[in-house]
C-alpha cells in the first residue's frame, strides 16, 4: 500500500478510548508529521490531541486555553498543539509563524484545520471526528503513512 491510500475508521465509546486511539496514532508520527483534525465543537479533537501528545512522550497535560492559538510542549520531539478556531484564515496563521512550525522539526496537531486549508500540506494525516451519540464518536483517519 502506498502512502496516502490508507483509510481507517474507528468508533470511540468514551473520552478515554479517544485518548487511547491518539496514543496509537502517535506511533506512526515522526519529525515533521502534521495531523489535521476536523470535526465540530465537542467532537473530541482535544482528547485525541491529549493521546497523541502522551504517545509522543509529552508528560505535561495538554489543555485548550481559550485564547492560545499555538501551544508548544516538550516530548520526544517538540510537540505543537494548534487551535485554529479563532484564526481568520491562512494569512492569519502565517502571521503567527505557522509555516515555520509546520515545516520545522516537531510534530503538529491542528484543531479546526479546515479554517486554514491552504496551510495543510497534502501529506498531512487527516482525522475527521463526528459525534454519533452522546458518548460515541466516529473517527476516520486518512493518509496515515504506513
Ligand atoms: N467518545 C468520546 N471521545 C471524546 N470525547 C467524548 C466522547 N464521548 C463524549 N465525549 C465528550 O465530548 C467532549 C469532547 O471534548 P473536546 O474538548 O475533546 O472536543 P473538541 O473537539 O476539542 O471541541 P472544541 O471544538 O471546543 O475544541 C468532552 O466533553 C467529552 O467528555
Ligand atoms: Mg478542542
Describe this structure in words.
The chain has 146 residues and is α/β, with parallel strands linked by helices. It has a domain at 32-93 and 107-140: 3-Layer(aba) Sandwich (Rossmann fold), CATH 3.40.50. The protein contains four helices and seven strands; from the N terminus they run βαβαββααβββ. It has helices spanning 15-26, 45-55, 90-95, 98-102; strands at 7-12, 34-38, 70-74, 78-83, 107-111, 125-133, 136-142. A seven-stranded mixed β-sheet has the order 1-7-6-2-5-4-3, with helices on one face. Strand 6 and strand 7 (136-142) form a beta hairpin. Bound molecules: adenosine-5'-triphosphate and magnesium ion. Magnesium ion binds at residues 45-46, 64, 111.
What CATH calls the topology of the domain at 32-93 and 107-140 is Rossmann fold
Rg from alpha-carbon coordinates: 14 Å
The CATH homologous superfamily of the domain at 32-93 and 107-140 = P-loop containing nucleotide triphosphate hydrolases
- Helix-strand makeup class: alpha/beta
Q: CATH class of the domain at 32-93 and 107-140, anyone?
A: Alpha Beta
- How much helix, percentage-wise, in residues? 10-25%
The amount of beta strand, in percent, is 25-35%
The rounded distance between the terminal residues' Cα atoms is 8 Å
Number of helices: 4
Could you give a short account of the major beta sheet?
A: 7 strands, mixed
**Distinct ligands:** adenosine-5'-triphosphate, magnesium ion
Query: What characteristic shape results from the CA principal axes?
Result: globular
Order of helices and strands: EHEHEEHHEEE
Beta-strand segment tally: 7
Which architecture of the domain at 32-93 and 107-140 does the CATH hierarchy give at level 2?
3-Layer(aba) Sandwich
Amino acid at each position: 500500500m502506498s502512502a496516502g491510500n490508507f483509510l481507517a475508521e474507528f468508533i470511540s465509546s468514551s473520552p478515554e478510548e479517544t485518548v487511547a486511539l491518539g496514543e496509537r496514532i502517535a506511533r506512526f508520527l515522526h519529525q515533521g508529521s502534521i495531523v489535521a483534525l476536523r470535526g465540530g465543537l465537542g467532537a473530541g479533537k482535544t482528547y485525541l490531541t491529549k493521546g497523541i501528545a502522551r504517545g509522543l512522550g509529552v508528560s505535561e497535560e495538554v489543555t485548550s486555553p481559550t485564547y492560545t492559538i499555538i501551544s508548544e510542549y516538550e516530548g520526544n520531539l517538540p510537540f505543537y498543539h494548534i487551535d485554529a478556531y479563532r484564526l481568520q484564515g491562512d494569512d492569519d496563521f502565517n502571521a503567527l509563524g505557522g509555516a515555520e512550525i509546520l515545516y520545522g522539526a516537531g510534530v503538529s496537531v491542528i484543531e479546526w484545520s479546515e479554517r486554514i486549508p491552504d496551510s495543510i500540506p497534502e501529506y498531512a494525516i487527516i482525522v475527521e471526528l463526528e459525534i454519533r451519540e452522546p458518548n460515541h464518536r466516529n473517527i476516520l483517519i486518512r493518509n496515515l503513512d504506513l
